[in-house]
Amino acid sequence: MKTAFIFPGQGAQTVGMAKDIADALPDAANLFETADKIAGFELSRICFEGPPEKLNTTACSQPAIFVTSAAVLHAFRKTPAAENLQPDITAGLSLGEYTALYAAGLVAFEDALKLVIQRGRAMQDAAERNPGSMVSIIGLDRPTVVQLCEKAAQGELLRPVNFNCPGQIVVSGTIPACKRAEKLAPEFGAIKAVTLQVAGAFHTEMMTHAAKALTNALQHCKIEDPDRTKVIANISAEYYQNAHQIKQGLAKQLTNPILWQMSVEKLIADGIEQFYEIGPGRVLTGLMKRINRKARITNLSTLQALRQYTA
Predict the structure, then answer these.
(1) Label partner for 112 (CA 20 to 30 A): which of 25, 94, 222, 243?
(2) 278 - beta bridge partners?
(3) Hey, is 42 helix, strand or coil?
């Protein structure tokens, strides 16, 4: 049976995530201890205890989600059910692509975490330099969302950037343009439009400053060429061929749309029969039900979920 490990991105974080796993498994706790040293602050305490306003910042939520996902992955691999389970493909939603690369054995935990920390800080800084926003549009197809953006933009930046699943597309741009999009969405037939609690206009050229900083960081990071496990790229919905392409893709992520729906559809078309969502929350499990209701997906986000799966 062909399998894929998939990993969530920013927005999946919740206070208390992975505390049950870290309490039960010393090896998982060690990952958080290592992360605290690399981050230079008590990342584990923020994951386990909050406060939410600290955890939800871009600079903190990104490394927090990465470490949590890595801890869940580690716990899963310690179970008898996954002892010899090597995924055919890994994938991650935006930030989750870093965990996908780690899970595929293409980058070391410490190196990936350093990149994620720099990514979060760079995106936070870019957002403060150039404030923006994002709005989730529910119930419209791609052409209609494009029309909505054209009307709401009024000469400002506004475009669809996250193609998550049928009927859920996120637009990103200047704050005034996003406000107009939220207000105009019902006129185009949207079920609803929700402003996201994010720091800026992610996946647009308003993140160019962050992309440059990340490009510099990637030059000093060791990433291996894909071997046994393939990794699919967010920005193209195609498989990475080599390390150079991976580094380019990670940098381009910040200023280009995320093609999650297309990526999942490709994995299904290529024969993936079993998906495992590994990390905090159930975001990707929910999206999967909208992309292909028949797809088999197992959510592994808590110690209880791991125990139920392996019972």
Answers:
(1) 25
(2) 300
(3) coil
Cα separation, 171 vs 177, in Å, equals 10
Known catalytic residues are 94, 203
Q: Where are the alpha helices (DSSP H) in the chain?
A: 19-24, 26-39, 43-49, 52-55, 58-77, 96-103, 109-129, 142-153, 175-184, 208-219, 243-252, 260-269, 283-291, 303-310
Stretch (H or E) spanning 274: strand 274-278
Structure tokens at 212: 């440059």
The pair of structure tokens assigned to 162 is 């996250």
Closest of 100, 37, 81, 65 to residue 229, by C-alpha:
100
Q: What is the mean pLDDT of each run of 10 residues along the chain (311 residues)?
A: 96 96 95 97 97 95 98 93 89 98 98 98 95 97 98 98 97 98 98 94 97 96 96 98 98 98 98 98 97 97 90 66
CB atoms within 10 A of CB 242: 12
Q: What's the CA gap between 60 and 13, in Å, rounded?
A: 10
d(CA 69, CA 96): 9
Run of H or E residues at 137: strand 133-138
Q: How far apart are CA 272 and CA 264, in angstroms?
A: 9
Phi, then psi, of 189 in degrees rounded to 5:
100, 10
